[in-house]
Write a structure and sequence with these properties.
It comes from Kitasatospora camelliae. This is DUF3105 domain-containing protein. Residues 1-23, 70-95 are annotated as: Disordered. With 238 residues, the protein is of the alpha/beta class. The protein folds into 2 domains: 13-89; 95-215, Glutaredoxin (3-Layer(aba) Sandwich). It contains 4 helices and 6 strands; from the N terminus they run αββαβαβββα. It has helices at residues 18-88, 139-147, 161-172, 207-215; strands at 95-96, 129-132, 151-155, 177-181, 189-193, 196-200. The protein has a 6-stranded mixed beta sheet with strand order 1-6-5-3-4-2. α3 (161-172) links the parallel β3 (151-155) and β4. The longest helix has 71 residues, at 18-88.
């Protein structure tokens, strides 16, 4: 007689074959693995969605920045055009002078204009960093500052205190400009640049701003970018 086959081992409590228990364990393991894969897939999708949203937000920010930059560029171009238009239009009352000498001298110079608009001058320039002087300055040093592109504001005894204060405030706010009294000048208020001069009666005259816009480091500047700071020098005429 042949040998009977050995029966499959049973579960110790249920008596069911052990392969069913193993199958259920295997299924549970597969489901757990699938759950882990789904979780990783969900997290990956969320990460991609986050990146897309961040990209959209960043793109929106870039669009906003581009729009702001475009507005700034348009404003800058408009301001530049305004300056160009202003620079090209004559300022009523401004007298101009050509062919001014630029020799450095250490002697007094007899200038034909009062205040002088250019010509031979002292080797050391007058400080013109928005400087306000309360007494007359040496012409020869001041002319050297004009050569560097500064605007010189002067006034005589007929000038009102309010006008002097207004011009002083304008000068203090403007590098490459300076102000000083000039008792014997014919005009009440005078604005001078190298080769250009304007006589006024009031600081509220709109030509004050036009003159500053045109001539502070303007096209008449003989030494563009030259310093307006200075060391020791004569500060009074005489």
């Amino acid at each position: 007689m042949g040998r009977r086959p050995t029966p499959a081992p049973s579960h110790p409590r249920t008596g069911r074959p052990a392969d069913r228990t193993e199958r259920r364990a295997r299924i549970a393991e597969l489901r757990a693995a699938e759950h882990r894969r789904e979780r990783r897939r969900t997290l990956a999708l969320l990460a991609v969605a986050g990146l897309l949203l961040a990209g959209l937000a960043g793109g929106g920010a870039l669009l906003v920045l581009d729009a702001r930059q475009d507005r700034t560029d348009r404003t800058d171009r408009r301001d530049q055009q305004d300056r160009t238009d202003t620079a090209g239009a004559p300022i009523p009352g401004v007298r101009t002078y050509d062919h001014l000498s630029r020799t450095h001298v250490t002697t007094k110079v007899a200038y034909p204009q009062t205040p002088p608009v250019g010509g031979d001058h002292h080797p050391v320039w007058l400080e013109c960093t928005g400087t306000v002087y309360d007494r007359p300055v040496a012409d020869e040093n001041a002319v050297h500052s004009l050569e560097h592109g500064a605007v010189w504001v002067t006034y005589n005894a007929k000038a009102g205190a309010a006008d002097v204060q207004a011009l002083a405030a304008r000068v203090r706010a403007t590098p490459y400009s300076f102000l000083s009294p000039y008792p014997d000048q014919p005009g009440i208020l005078t604005l001078t640049a190298w080769g250009a001069q304007l006589v006024l009666e009031s600081a509220s005259d709109p030509r004050v701003e036009q003159f500053f816009t045109r001539y502070v480091q303007g096209p008449q500047t003989q030494e563009p970018g030259a310093s307006c700071s200075a060391g020791s020098m004569p500060l009074t005429r005489g």
